[in-house]
Structures are given as C-alpha cells and as structure tokens.
Amino acid sequence: MYRIAEILGKVLREEGASGMKELLTIKNRWVDMVGEPLASKTAPIRLDDKKLYIRSESHAWSQELHYEKERIKSVIEKETGVEIEDLVVRKVNLG
C-alpha cells in the first residue's frame, strides 16, 4: 500500500512541481539577490530540472540577465542552497 506522501511526491514530480518550494524561496529573495533595478523588470517564473526560467520586460533586461548569469547562479546557490545550472530568459510584454 502506498502512503499519501509517496503518491503526492510522485504526482508533483510528474507534473514538474517538485521545485515549487525552491522556486518560492528564490522568488521571495529575488530583490535581495539581484538588486532592485533588475528585480523590478524581471522575475523567476519556473524551476525545472535545475533550470530557472525568468521573465523579462524587455530585450535590454534579458541582455542584462545574460551578462549577470554566472553571478546570479552563484548568489542563488549561496543564499538559498538551490543549485541552478542554467537561466532561461523569456521576454514577456506586460503592457
């Protein structure tokens, strides 16, 4: 017989939600980790298989994330313990 925790864990992994706690931690600390200017124009939106997906308001902010990629990955791991192998940036029109 399966325990509820085992079943729930399996469902979350299959649905890509196993990193939800880590993503919420990153979201809550985003301003502190990347700074106000960058945080006001970008936001983490998904964590999947050690890839952090980030939305960006413009191409310019996407480029800034690209330039800061290694520093951001390092800060996230240092501050949250979450290992990020890659940042995937998605430009999203918000207006």
N- and C-termini, Cα separation: 51 Å
What is the strand content?
15-25%
Overall number of strands: 3
Strand order of the largest sheet: 1-2-3
How would you sum up the major sheet? 3 strands, mixed
Helix proportion = 40-55%
Order of helices and strands: HHHEEHHE
Cα-based radius of gyration, to the nearest Å: 15 Å
Average of pLDDT: 87
Rough shape? Answer: elongated
What report would you give on this structure?
By secondary structure, the chain is of the alpha+beta class. Helix content is 54%, strand content 20%. It has helices at residues 4-14, 20-34, 36-39, 59-67, 69-80; strands spanning 42-48, 51-56, 86-91. The longest helix has 15 residues, at 20-34.
Summary?
This protein is of the alpha+beta class.
Topology of helices and strands:
Blueprint lengths: L3 H11 L5 H15 L1 H4 L2 E7 L2 E6 L2 H9 L1 H12 L5 E6 L4
Parallel strand pairs: 2-3
Antiparallel strand pairs: 1-2
Helix pairs in contact: 2-5
Key phrases:
95 residues; 5 helices; three-stranded mixed sheet; alpha+beta
